[in-house]
Design goal:
Helix content: 40-55%
Strand order of the largest sheet: 3-2-1-4-5
Mean pLDDT: 96
Distance between the termini: 33 Å
Number of helices: 10
Low-confidence stretches: none
CATH superfamily of the largest domain: ATPase, nucleotide binding domain
Number of strands: 10
Strand content: 15-25%
Largest sheet: 5 strands, mixed
Number of domains: 2
Length: 338
């Protein structure tokens, strides 16, 4: 039995987790501790980077001790330390990276740098024992919307992405404008069930042609213009209809490109991951798309869709197994892998 400590601090959750890996290679979560900052950032309607960084500093030591205690192991039982190094908020990332470097160095443990996007996909391995590359990965979150041709556990080929805003950012922005609490994702998901998805004309985020790229800025602008028109003409803003129409447009756009990607790659498995993977409408839409192309859908449980240390530990295990190790010169990057 091997144990990997995973550390996540790319945005507004500080998390430390321990994942156990059996002799057969199967992974399971021994402990997964998440210190959320949602209530703090809700006061501002979004994440304030400086506040997030300070909160990570305050939480990181305590949750690491809690994770090790919850797993029932000591530092000497660990095989490696994995940490999200990119992409994300640079100040927040630096807290996790520097703590992990110090922890690994002080305890003579291998250090693994983890790509936050790959970690979201790796969350699926923790709940789907049958999952094995190759497959199509669709990652949808507040900061990213991308499609990957996953060749093996560490080899990801980007085949489509948003050219501007992410789907989750559009949900949060429109949700905030119509009065939903931050983060708006869960509330918007529920509100969409009460509205008419065809009531508000909105453009598709799926770009035309053979490209697998998307664009959410025009969709977001159209929704904002509709809301402002209602306000300026004295018409009550149909919040549920806006939520339903926005959700349908986002879901239809993503599932359209996922279908094109399945047809192009021939993959028979599609993984939906990232914070917006918790959206019930997107799950249902991608399930229908997978069935249409004779593929199966794998989605982590809602508890593992958001940022967490367990997904980092899982991704870290695969990098560690490949011999992809970092050292004390490791630095964080706000962008994709440097």
């Amino acid at each position: 039995m091997k144990y990997v400590l995973g550390m996540e601090s790319s945005c507004d959750e500080t998390s430390a987790a321990v994942v156990r890996v059996g002799d057969d290679g199967r992974m399971s979560i021994a402990a997964n501790i998440v210190a959320s900052q949602i209530e703090t950032h809700r006061l501002y309607g979004g994440v304030v980077p400086e506040i997030a960084s300070r909160a990570h500093i305050e939480a990181v030591s305590g949750i690491t001790r809690e994770a090790l205690s919850g797993a029932g192991i000591g530092v000497g039982d660990l095989s490696a330390v994995a940490v999200t190094a990119f992409p994300g908020l640079i100040g927040a990332l630096l807290v996790g990276v520097n703590f992990a470097k110090s922890f690994a160095y002080a305890n003579d443990l291998p250090l693994v740098a983890v790509d936050h996007i790959k970690a979201h996909v790796a969350a699926a391995y923790l709940s789907d024992e049958a999952l094995c590359p190759p497959f199509l990965a669709v990652v949808v979150s507040g900061g990213h919307t991308a499609l990957f041709d996953v060749r093996d556990h560490t080899d990801f080929r980007l085949i489509g992405s948003t050219r501007d805003d992410a789907a989750g950012e559009a949900f949060d922005k429109i949700g905030r404008v119509i009065g939903l609490p931050y983060p708006a994702g869960a509330a918007l998901d529920q509100l969409a069930r009460q509205g008419d998805p065809g009531a508000v004309p909105l453009p598709s985020p799926a770009l035309g042609g053979d490209t697998l790229d998307l664009s959410f800025s025009g969709l977001k602008t159209a929704a904002l213009n509709y809301i402002h028109h209602c306000e300026q003409t004295g018409v009550p803003v149909p919040r549920a209809d806006i939520a339903a129409s926005l959700t349908r447009a986002v879901t239809a756009g993503i599932t359209k490109k996922a279908g094109q990607a399945l047809a192009a790659t021939g993959h028979k498995t599609v993984v939906l991951a990232g914070g917006v993977a918790a959206n019930s409408h997107l799950r249902a839409g991608l399930l229908q798309t997978a069935k249409k192309y004779g593929a199966r859908l794998s989605v982590p449980p809602v508890s593992l869709c958001g940022d967490n240390g367990a997904m980092v530990a899982a991704a870290g295990w695969f990098e560690y197994r490949r011999g992809h190790l970092a050292d004390v010169s490791l630095n964080a990057s706000a962008e994709d892998e440097p």
